Amino acid sequence: MSGLSRIVYEQDTVTKDRLNTLKTKGVNIVMTNVEITDGIYDRADAIIETGADTKSLGLKWAVRLGLMPLYQEVMSQTGADNRMFVRKAERGGFENVHKLFTKMAERSVAPDFIEIDTDVYSQIQGITLSFEEQTRMINSCINAAKAVNPNCQVILSTSESTDNEKAKKWFNRFQVSGGKPFDIICLHYELNSETFYDLSMNMSDLSRRFEAKIIVDISRQDNPASADIGLEDLDSAISIVPLDMGFGTVYSDKGLDEATLVA
Prior knowledge:
Blueprint: E1 5-10, H1 16-24, E2 29-35, H2 45-56, E3 60-66, H3 68-78, H4 82-106, E4 113-117, H5 131-148, E5 153-158, H6 164-176, E6 184-188, H7 196-210, E7 213-217, H8 231-239, E8 246-252, H9 253-258
Parallel strand pairs: 1-2, 1-8, 2-3, 3-4, 4-5, 5-6, 6-7, 7-8
Helix pairs in contact: 3-4, 4-5, 6-7
């Protein structure tokens, strides 16, 4: 189990003292939520400071791109005009992520990972996006990050953690539509004995089919210690993903504090 990554998701920026505490708990990756809005790069000092503190402690740093605020801003300008919305959202995603990552690079702070939540594209109210349009919007953010930091690994996350048919259909369509290469699939999951087998099968199939590492994200579950499946069981399932493609687990800050972790 020691080879698996322990990742903590922090909704807000954190102090260096807190980062030190996380390190003593065995955390080796800190994931920071960054709400992308127009001009985010001009308000990024706290984000960059968290990244610098994280890296200074020898931890890796992941940035979760919260894209909904940007898309809502764009929609307020374009209304329900699909073509205009996609064009401006694609351009806005690239420009804001690129300028943000450029500012990070100027301060010698480079995220090791970016995460994009694929579910956000089905949650945009008032706009129906074709799969090709979704792919263009995702690609714009990947291109922006990679243009500044080519070594940054790409995580694509989905809530389809137990429905293999839906999950593999999405990633298949993404690739067929010209989706950019990605490194890791992140499955948002809530520990449950009734769905645990389905999660295990999905991890195995997706890792082989798309040659991607697998993360299980339980950060939406406040108290994993109360679940009927233990963290040791989850670690075991991730560790046996074929070809050593099981990468690790994402915990919430609170969930990590309450969890009894396995060495």
